[in-house]
């Protein structure tokens, strides 16, 4: 008896969804392959800077030059956070265990709860810029849309009126918010490995405070903490602010297909190698959202393929300079807070403004 083997025809470039066709192009270009050499070098450099920064604190000791070390360590902590981000997306290691170990070590180094952040960030990636589903759009301090402004109470209502002007000053509190949110998440019983995360968090806080009080006089230790944590927060916020703020916000049943959901709500930032280092590759936000596990050094190469593909589909691909991205984000925040500013205008003033004065 002759046995016949069924041969499947090769996938056509026109078969599958829009994202499936793009994904094949990216895979054929080899851009989803891991980059162990790159990450080994990057982790080594960041680790050396981390140790060197604390060594500088010890050497400067009672001198106010220690605040320069605090500023340097703020940048280093930001780079550690970006490594934790890459590890959580399995860009560094293909397997879950290696990714979690790397991510937890990085998180412990900066006082961040890895499990809390990974859960939050995963939900963001699934529904970027969706008012009800993206945790990054929760109106806990700022309002991101005029509907949120109308419903705002407490601090969001007070701050929302002038939030565009307060945005960068408020970023000085972002690192503290990171620590507080990580601790509060430990009360969530559904959080995996929360005991381990809690132990690592409080170990970081204990070591951090002990080292400062051991190396520095109390007043200088407080100044160091304020400068270090404040600038760390500004750096973190400056990295993530250009990515989605000022882009379309989805609501209700707005659920475009995966490709459009990721591309239309994200913004790329133009720049060279320095921008890639400073923003950890997140300046290629569109490519990152389409392919979260793609190693960050491959994102720039993927950009050419993705941009051309979006142009062929007629899908808006937004890319601006860094300063423009901040301007758009701040403009969006100012517009979102408009109902709160209007609410403060006296009724007679509103009548006159509208030409209805009696």
Approximately how much helix is present in the residues?
55-70%
Uncertain runs are 1-11, 347-358
- Work out the strand percent: under 5%
Rg measurement, Å:
23 Å
End-to-end separation in angstroms reads: 99 Å
Number of strands: 2
Oligomer: single chain
Q: How would a crystallographer describe the biggest sheet?
A: 2 strands, parallel
Quote the average pLDDT: 91
Shape, per Cα inertia axes: globular
Structural class: mainly alpha
SSE succession = HHHHHHHHHHHHEHHHEHHH
Spatial order of the strands in the main sheet? 1-2
Number of helices: 18
Q: What's the domain count? A: 1
InterPro entries: FA_desaturase_dom, Fatty_acid_desaturase
Protein name: Acyl-CoA desaturase
Keywords: Membrane, Transmembrane, Transmembrane helix
